[in-house]
Design a protein that fits this description.
The chain is α+β, with helices and mostly antiparallel strands and 219 residues long. The chain has 6 helices and 11 strands.
Length: 219
């Protein structure tokens, strides 16, 4: 709880940095028609040399992990988890000393940004991560960094070289914390047949995002 309170100033700063002044007002007035998310790009080699925390491991989620994930995140249901896995989405359980303390969802081929109803085709060397979660009781102790490194190493060994992430506004995308800003804020408004998309890009890869996001389509 204390960690969440300490993070409020940073999250407020990040939200204004990612959106500016007007969109938060739109969010308050137009909810639930207004949606937004942040997409980031991370070269995998950035993290392969990070020092791991002993006792942390990853494994692919199977049927025996479903109950543990539901206990960790009550918004999940067994059908939701199993349905995603049947669709080809991947989920890695983050385990600390035999206890599941988090998860990383990922997919290849296409990034479906469900929060804003958009999809982005992925290139063969790209993987997307989303709904990266670590139990609050185990944050700020190295679990997140070790899981990130292990996941990136897995992807590197499988031939992937870039990871695209997305998160809610006011949060830095998975793996971008502490790096130069390299992300795009994507905002949509949908009201009946009317749909509008805005994109705002930042950092040294702004031009990259301006080109890639031309491929976004409504899901």
């Amino acid at each position: 709880m204390l960690g969440a309170i300490r993070s409020w100033p940073r999250r407020i700063r990040d939200s204004f940095e990612q959106e500016g002044l007007l969109p938060p007002v739109l969010r308050a007035v137009l909810r639930p028609f207004y949606r937004a998310a942040v997409l980031g790009l991370v070269p995998l080699e950035l993290h392969l040399r990070d020092t791991p925390l002993p006792g942390v491991s990853l494994h692919d989620v199977t049927e025996k992990d479903v109950a543990a994930l539901i206990a960790l995140r009550p918004e999940y249901t067994g059908e939701k988890i199993r349905g995603r896995l049947r669709q080809g989405q991947r989920c890695c359980a983050i385990v600390l000393e035999e206890t599941t303390v988090g998860c990383i969802w990922a997919s290849t081929g296409e990034a479906r940004v469900e929060d804003i109803g958009l999809a982005l085709p992925l290139r063969p060397e790209e993987v997307v991560t989303y709904e990266v979660y670590v139990d609050p009781a185990h944050r700020r102790g190295g679990v997140y960094g070790t899981a990130r490194r292990a996941f990136d190493q897995r992807c590197w060994d499988q031939g992937y070289r870039r990871r695209i992430t997305f998160s809610t506004l006011g949060r830095r995308p998975f793996g971008v914390k502490g790096r130069p800003l390299q992300f795009a804020a994507v905002r949509t408004v949908g009201l009946g047949p009317f749909r509008k998309l805005w994109v705002r890009t930042y950092g040294p890869q702004a031009e990259y995002w301006r080109e890639r996001l031309k491929e976004l389509r409504w899901a």
